[in-house]
């Protein structure tokens, strides 16, 4: 969570009734008054699971569900390409093509420059209700195309396991689409934000179309 004391960092922009606002450059919501930060622990007790308990191996990903030798990563590279593809000799992986990265707004032609991002990260999901899922449920989530996005590998690494309160894509034109994807996936998988996180999330969405 980004908390900015008013005396430590002063910048332009009015505050809302809660005492916070969205940064004009990053779009991230942050607080300037104590009341804005009220709302309890970062994760509601009913959904809390320590980050230290997360093990990526418990969330099998990059599966070949249809048995065509192309795993989920390469399926997404193929599906989300905006131009012709060049495959490996065995046809099981994507080597080159054309992709528009929504996080940066840049075009890419080398698959090696791209990651397939989990919009709602696996570790974040683990801490917000997913820890209670069966391994089968975790596998479905980890390979769900609705939660997968081909993006710049450096930006994917910068995002890590952060939620939307703490990280948004540099491409501000994509913020509303990104936030809408989060809302849809939270509902689909019944993942729980704390009151504090949910309040910030709602404020982030205020300037987006209904």
Terminus-to-terminus distance? 25 Å
Assembly state (oligomeric): single chain
* Helical fraction: 25-40%
Unreliable stretches covering 5 or more consecutive residues: 1-12, 25-30, 34-46
Tally of strands: 7
Report the radius of gyration as a whole number of Å.
19 Å
Give the strand order, joined by hyphens, for the main sheet.
3-4-5
Q: Tell me the fraction of residues in β-strands, as a range.
A: 5-15%
Biggest sheet statistics:
3 strands, antiparallel
What does this 3D model show about the protein?
With 210 residues, the chain is α+β, with helices and mostly antiparallel strands. The protein has helices at 72-79, 122-127, 135-142, 153-159, 175-189, 195-204, and strands at residues 20-22, 29-31, 86-87, 94-100, 107-110, 114-118, 148-152. The strands form three sheets. A three-stranded antiparallel β-sheet has the order 3-4-5, covered by helices on one side. It has a two-stranded antiparallel sheet with strand order 1-2. A hairpin with a 6-residue loop joins β3 (86-87) and β4. The longest helix has 15 residues, at 175-189.
Describe the SSE topology.
Elements: E1 20-22, E2 29-31, H1 72-79, E3 86-87, E4 94-100, E5 107-110, E6 114-118, H2 122-127, H3 135-142, E7 148-152, H4 153-159, H5 175-189, H6 195-204
Antiparallel strand pairs: 1-2, 3-4, 4-5, 6-7
Tags for this model:
210 residues, alpha+beta, 3-stranded antiparallel beta sheet, two-stranded antiparallel sheet, 6 helices, 7 strands, disordered N terminus
In short, what is this structure?
The chain has 6 helices and 7 strands; from the N terminus they run E-E-H-E-E-E-E-H-H-E-H-H-H.
């Amino acid at each position: 969570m980004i908390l900015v004391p008013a005396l430590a960092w002063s910048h332009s922009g009015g505050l809302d009734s809660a005492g916070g606002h969205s940064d004009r450059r990053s779009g991230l919501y942050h607080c300037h008054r104590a009341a804005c930060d009220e709302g309890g622990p970062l994760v509601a007790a009913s959904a809390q699971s320590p980050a230290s308990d997360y093990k990526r191996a418990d969330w099998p990903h990059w599966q070949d569900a249809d048995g065509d030798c192309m795993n989920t990563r390469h399926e997404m590279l193929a599906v989300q390409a905006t131009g012709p593809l060049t495959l490996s000799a065995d046809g099981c992986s994507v080597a080159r093509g054309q992709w528009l990265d929504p996080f940066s707004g840049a075009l890419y032609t080398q698959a090696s420059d791209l990651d397939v991002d989990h919009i709602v990260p696996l570790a974040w999901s683990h801490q917000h209700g997913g820890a209670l899922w069966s391994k089968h449920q975790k596998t479905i989530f980890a390979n769900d195309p609705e939660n997968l996005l081909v993006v710049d590998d450096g930006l994917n690494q910068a995002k890590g396991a952060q939620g939307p309160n703490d990280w948004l894509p540099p491409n501000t034109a994509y913020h509303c689409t990104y936030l809408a994807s989060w809302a849809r996936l939270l509902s689909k998988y019944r993942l729980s934000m704390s009151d504090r996180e949910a309040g910030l999330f709602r404020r982030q969405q205020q300037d987006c179309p209904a």
